[in-house]
């Protein structure tokens, strides 16, 4: 009798917990698709489903990441050092509203007189990075999602130590989950060498469940406020030596000139969050720069601390405005409804839409889910390709020979809603031409997906892809 009563109370308590969790989730007014997916998890996987939701499902509100007061203080600071956006005669009129969208939703100002160099392989990128770091005279600001203690990581750290010993200001932000393999002893040595190191949203009990799902996926390097690097590559040997699938293909940018200030703004905002230190020396961190190039850029940052899904909004608007073509590369293709519809509508309207995806991936579940969206693309006339030589990790879009973007954001729910990301918008026909040429090179190394063949793939595979897609809004 006692056993039966105990069992009854345990079941009743669990049922009340599930019901109250579902009600709270509904009160948050999330996407219906995501809410339904979580309800299925809670109901179909008793016990474990609740545990998954506690760790990964709870909505991390802005006020839990950075207080409103801190945000207001930071943005007031930024307003004092930024100029109004410059819409010169050379700025393409068709992108004026998109540039205003990025400004209003992400405080992404337009920067002119910027030189943009594109790197498509790790060896040449890190040669350039290490060369610029060695030339640093005042400070080096570092922010990466993955920072490993391998050969590339060790060489990177040794330069930072040497520069700190020379009296330079060296600041490092690493993501606590993405860089979990970075040895604690190495971090300790960096701090002992005079390097300021902070982990972004450090994960640990009892606050594990409230932080693990929101990661800093940004890759930013700023040197003396004059040269900056950003894009898809982290600090790891895989970008130089490749992986078990072959070449690790990615895209990164080197900026020189005014555009570096956009990267600096993003880094200093994150530095204020992790250290609660507001760096005030404008002349040092935002130095006057010469005219190094003609590119006009915006650095768009987004994350759970912002009111809008800024990167997603900008990409949606860019796709909606495309007239000739949209060439897209992404390692993970799990688009939300606006992006999915934007690509389909563009293709159905006569725009040449092409997407390069990896044939092999470092995340098998994400690849299966990505494959489930290929049908939606092929039916709308979108041309989809699998990259063959290795794993393509590049996150790029080039549109109509005028606009291109390189960033950290994948084409998925997590990048749009949960991660801290940063993308660079480049309004420059010359850069767009280079980006297009790079895409065409990757295209030559890719296999087009034949719609009829794709339909004939095994049913068991289709079922696995559909199952993965069902949970893709949670990933």
Brief digest:
The chain has 475 residues and is of the alpha/beta class. The protein has helices at 2-27, 32-44, 48-56, 62-65, 68-81, 96-106, 122-134, 151-165, 184-192, 208-211, 238-241, 260-275, 282-285, 310-321, 337-348, 364-372, 374-379, 413-418, 429-444, 451-455, 459-470, and strands at residues 110-119, 139-144, 169-175, 196-200, 220-223, 227-231, 247-249, 252-257, 295-302, 325-329, 333-334, 352-358, 383-387, 390-392, 396-399, 403-407, 411-412, 421-427, 446-448.
SSE layout:
Elements: H1 2-27, H2 32-44, H3 48-56, H4 62-65, H5 68-81, H6 96-106, E1 110-119, H7 122-134, E2 139-144, H8 151-165, E3 169-175, H9 184-192, E4 196-200, H10 208-211, E5 220-223, E6 227-231, H11 238-241, E7 247-249, E8 252-257, H12 260-275, H13 282-285, E9 295-302, H14 310-321, E10 325-329, E11 333-334, H15 337-348, E12 352-358, H16 364-372, H17 374-379, E13 383-387, E14 390-392, E15 396-399, E16 403-407, E17 411-412, H18 413-418, E18 421-427, H19 429-444, E19 446-448, H20 451-455, H21 459-470
Describe the 3D structure.
With 475 residues, this protein is an alpha/beta fold. 46% of the residues lie in helices and 20% in strands. The chain has helices at residues 2-27, 32-44, 48-56, 62-65, 68-81, 96-106, 122-134, 151-165, 184-192, 208-211, 238-241, 260-275, 282-285, 310-321, 337-348, 364-372, 374-379, 413-418, 429-444, 451-455, 459-470; strands spanning 110-119, 139-144, 169-175, 196-200, 220-223, 227-231, 247-249, 252-257, 295-302, 325-329, 333-334, 352-358, 383-387, 390-392, 396-399, 403-407, 411-412, 421-427, 446-448. Strands 4-3-2-5-6-8-1-9-18-16-15-10-12-13-19 form a 15-stranded mixed beta sheet, with helices on both faces. It has a two-stranded parallel ribbon with strand order 7-14. The chain has a two-stranded parallel sheet with strand order 11-17. Helix 1 runs antiparallel to helix 2 (32-44), helix 2 packs antiparallel against helix 3 (48-56) and helix 14 runs parallel beside helix 15. Mean pLDDT is 84; it is low at 61-74 and 76-85.
């Amino acid at each position: 009798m006692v056993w039966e009563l105990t069992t009854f109370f345990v079941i009743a308590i669990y049922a009340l917990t599930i019901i109250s969790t579902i009600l709270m989730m509904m009160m948050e007014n999330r996407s219906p698709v995501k809410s339904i997916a979580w309800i299925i998890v809670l109901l179909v996987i008793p016990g474990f489903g609740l545990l998954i939701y506690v760790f990964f499902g709870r909505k991390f509100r802005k006020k839990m990441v950075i207080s409103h007061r801190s945000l207001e203080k930071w943005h007031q600071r930024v307003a004092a050092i930024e100029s109004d956006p410059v819409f010169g005669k050379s700025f393409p009129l068709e992108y004026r509203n998109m540039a205003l969208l990025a400004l209003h939703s992400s405080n992404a100002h337009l920067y002119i007189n910027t030189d943009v160099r594109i790197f498509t392989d790790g060896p040449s990128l890190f040669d350039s990075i290490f060369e610029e770091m060695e030339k640093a005279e005042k400070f080096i600001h570092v922010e990466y999602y993955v920072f490993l203690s391998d050969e590339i990581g060790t060489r990177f750290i040794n330069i930072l130590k040497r520069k700190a010993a020379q009296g330079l200001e060296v600041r490092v932000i690493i993501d606590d989950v993405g860089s979990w393999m970075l040895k604690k002893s190495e971090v300790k040595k960096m701090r002992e060498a005079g390097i300021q190191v902070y982990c972004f949203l450090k994960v640990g009990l009892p606050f594990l469940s409230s932080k693990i799902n929101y990661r800093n996926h940004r890759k930013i390097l700023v040197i003396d406020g004059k040269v900056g690097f950003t894009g898809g590559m982290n600090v790891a040997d895989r970008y130089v030596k490749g992986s078990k699938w072959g070449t690790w293909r990615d895209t990164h940018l080197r900026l020189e000139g005014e555009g570096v200030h956009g990267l600096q703004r993003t880094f200093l905002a994150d530095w204020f969050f992790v250290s609660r230190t507001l760096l005030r020396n404008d002349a040092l961190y935002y130095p006057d720069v010469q005219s190094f190039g003609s590119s006009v850029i915006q650095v768009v940052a987004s994350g759970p601390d912002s009111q809008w899904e800024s990167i997603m909004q900008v990409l949606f608007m860019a796709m909606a405005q495309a007239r000739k073509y949209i060439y897209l590369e992404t390692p993970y293709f799990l688009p939300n409804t606006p992006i999915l519809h934007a690509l389909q509508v563009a293709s159905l309207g006569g725009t040449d839409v092409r997407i390069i995806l990896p044939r092999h991936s470092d995340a098998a579940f994400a690849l299966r889910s990505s494959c489930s969206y290929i049908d939606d693309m092929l039916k709308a006339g979108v041309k989809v390709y699998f990259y063959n030589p290795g794993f393509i990790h590049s996150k790029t879009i080039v549109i109509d020979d005028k606009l291109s973007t390189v960033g950290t954001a994948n084409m998925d729910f997590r990048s749009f809603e949960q991660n801290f990301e940063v993308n660079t918008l480049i309004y420059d026909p010359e850069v767009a031409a280079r980006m297009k040429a790079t895409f065409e090179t990757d295209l030559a190394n890719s296999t087009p997906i034949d719609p009829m063949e794709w339909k004939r793939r095994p049913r068991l595979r289709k079922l696995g892809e559909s199952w993965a897609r069902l949970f893709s809004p949670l990933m």
